[in-house]
Amino acid sequence: MGKNEIKYFNKYVYGLLGGCVDYDYAEKPRCINQHIAYMLNRTQSMFRWENLPKTIPERSLELFLQTNGNVCWYKYNDDLYVFTGGLGGEPDAYYMPTIYTIANPALKLSKSLKIDEECVIMPNDSLYLGLMPMFSRYATGITENELSMKLAVINSRIIDLISAPDDRTRESALKFLSDIETGKMGVIAENSFLDGVKAQPYGTTGNSNTLTNLIEMEQYLKASWFNELGLNANYNMKRESLNSSESQLNNDALLPLVDDMLKNRERALDKVNDMFGTNIRVSLSSSWEDNVQEIEMEHDDISGQPENETPEPEPEKGGEDEPETDK
User: Which residues of the chain have pLDDT under 70?
Assistant: First the structure.
């Protein structure tokens, strides 16, 4: 391989990592946004959409729903689109909005639409919340915990606190530590070094316990985040195995939010298909689909087991001293 070939190989393969820098845990807003973005990458695989028109990318549809909490389905110039906008108008009998206002610069469109007459509103969930409030809460907690973990790891390097009475002794101590760090034999030239330098032991045991607690908190926050999204992630704090009943209780808590999100999509699609003559469908996908199937199989196995029958009582026996009677 020639020099030019190696140059381009480095550029397009591992050379891409040349711009990486140390990750700054103290830059909290950036860290929080990255945690949210990576989780949104995962939730993009939550639903499978079928028969969507070319004017509605599945990625944009799910991002709008999950981040905005709702979208508006509206046909413009004979093409069906989804928009984000504002809910308003005079409330109906159940205090729900009746007008959806949209503005799209690319289509040069700005209009207030009558809900269920000109457009259909699809909420992400029953309360139109979206996933951002939950994502912000967990991402903030994880970011704070990771910053504490970084500080605990750095503090764990401190074995002794070293003090020196003067600059000369301080320089000798630094030279001694530098030699040890680079693998050289550390040499003490003067007795004054031993007399002047003092080392105070640092509480490494406390640091170790702190780091362990922070690791457990990291696991708990991430597992709770996944569990709220319908994915089973273990955060067993008992440090022992879970029995089947405990595992089943965890499975039962996974699906309500995902079921609500799917139900709202399906209900809105019924209106969309009726109003615009489409045949769009949605269903769970990826790990969420697999998880539902596994939980249903577990329920079927449990319901298919015969109930424990009460054993018949054994006949009473006479005392040992009671003689048998011949008949």
Answer: 1-20, 161, 186-208, 235-253, 298-327
206 φ/ψ angles, rounded to the nearest 5 degrees = -60, -40
Rounded Cα distance, 71 and 37, in Å = 20
pLDDT (tens digit, 9 = 90+) per residue, 40-75?
Answer: 999 999 999 999 999 999 999 999 999 999 999 999
User: How many Å apart are CA 232 and CA 39, to the nearest integer?
Assistant: 15
What DSSP string describes 24-84?
-TT-HHHHHHHHHHHHHHHHTTSEEEES--TTS-HHHHHHHHHHHSEEEEEEETTEEEEE-
Neighbours of 18 (CB within 10 A): 8
C-alpha separations of 23 from 2, 30, 31, 139, 148 in Å? 35, 10, 9, 16, 14
Q: What is the pTM of this model?
A: 0.76
Determine how many CB atoms are found less than 10 A away from the CB of residue 89: 16
**Tokens (6 digits) for 320:** 């040992």
Segment 271-290, tens digit of pLDDT: 999 999 999 999 999 888 88
Side chain identity at 292, as an amino acid letter?
A: V
What is the SS3 assignment for 85?
Answer: strand
User: Residue 39 — φ and ψ, nearest 5°?
Assistant: -70, -35
What is the Cα–Cα distance from 296 to 251, expressed in whole angstroms? 10
Q: How far is CA 160 from CA 155, 168, 181, in A?
A: 11, 20, 15
Kindly state the DSSP code that residue 115 receives in the 8-state scheme.
Answer: B
pLDDT for residue 10: 62
